[in-house]
Automatic annotation (TrEMBL):
Organism superkingdom: Eukaryota
Molecular function (Gene Ontology), one example: dephospho-CoA kinase activity
Listed name of the protein: Dephospho-CoA kinase domain-containing protein
Short name of any one Pfam family annotated for the protein: CoaE
HAMAP family: Dephospho_CoA_kinase
CDD domains linked to this entry: DPCK
A GO BP entry: coenzyme A biosynthetic process
Keyword presence, ATP-binding: yes
InterPro entries for this protein: Depp_CoAkinase (IPR001977), P-loop_NTPase (IPR027417)
Keyword ATP-binding: yes
Organism (species): Arctia plantaginis (Wood tiger moth)
NCBIfam families: dephospho-CoA kinase
Gene Ontology, cellular component aspect: cytoplasm
């Protein structure tokens, strides 16, 4: 099994592309879904978050008010670092555990959506291929304003805090242009699915794992035999 990283910019359409992979029977890992679970009320991360930020970032039912939390940390570097320290290691750990479970259930590859894949660099080592989702600059701005009810000025500032899309494209193996309609995005995504499905990397990887497993088994067996002979 190998991992395909899916990234892009704010509101470029990563979730749309991820859903197309899912519809085609590909195992996917959504970082946003994982992040929500990590911060569910009562978890260690949630308790640390509440202790540091207070109840102002919580909704009446105790769930994290993600919009409010975003406002709090956006203009404060230290608070943003604290949030990342609380959440990122746990999110990454949960994603890798899920990836391992997919490996043992026989999936040839999985698609892992990581919005800040290049910015943090933490997960790059595990990615066999990387896909970046892009769209026109004006579309990205319009979508973000509509989705998050941001003013244009705030949306531009949020976008500028991430790595420019052209830099992400330069570091990627595939690019999906989500500037057109859903049919166009689906066509590009399914073309990539066909290419990934032909990859022989999974066979090589499984062969290496199998050889390593046999080496361990024979090594343990040899050690046990030597111990038995010694006791004789």
């Amino acid at each position: 099994m190998f991992i395909v990283g899916l990234t892009g910019g704010l509101a470029t359409g990563k979730s749309t592309v991820l859903s197309i992979f899912r519809e085609n029977g590909i195992a996917v890992i959504d970082a946003d879904e994982i992040a929500k679970k990590v911060l569910e009320p009562g978890t260690k991360a949630w308790k640390e978050l509440r202790d540091f930020f207070g109840d102002e970032v919580l909704l009446p039912d105790g769930k994290v008010n993600r919009m409010q939390l975003g406002e709090v940390v956006f203009n404060d570097v230290e608070k943003r670092r604290k949030l990342n320290a609380i959440t990122h290691p746990r999110i990454q750990s949960a994603m890798m555990k899920l990836a391992i479970s997919y490996f043992f259930t026989g999936h040839r590859y999985i698609v892992m959506e990581v919005p800040l894949l290049f910015e943090t660099g933490k997960m790059l080592t595990f990615m066999h291929k990387i896909i970046t989702v892009v769209c026109e600059e004006h579309q990205q701005l319009e979508r973000l304003c509509k989705r998050n009810s941001f003013s244009e000025a705030v949306a531009k500032k949020r976008i500028s805090c991430q790595m420019p899309l052209e830099d992400k494209v330069a570091k990627s193996h595939f690019v999906i242009d989500n500037s057109g309609d859903l049919a166009y995005t689906r066509q590009q995504t399914e073309n990539i699915i066909r290419l990934l499905s032909r990859s022989k990397f999974t066979l090589y990887f499984r062969a290496i794992v199998f050889i390593a497993f046999l080496s361990v088994v024979f090594g343990v067996g040899h050690l046990a035999y030597n111990v038995i002979e010694y006791k004789k």
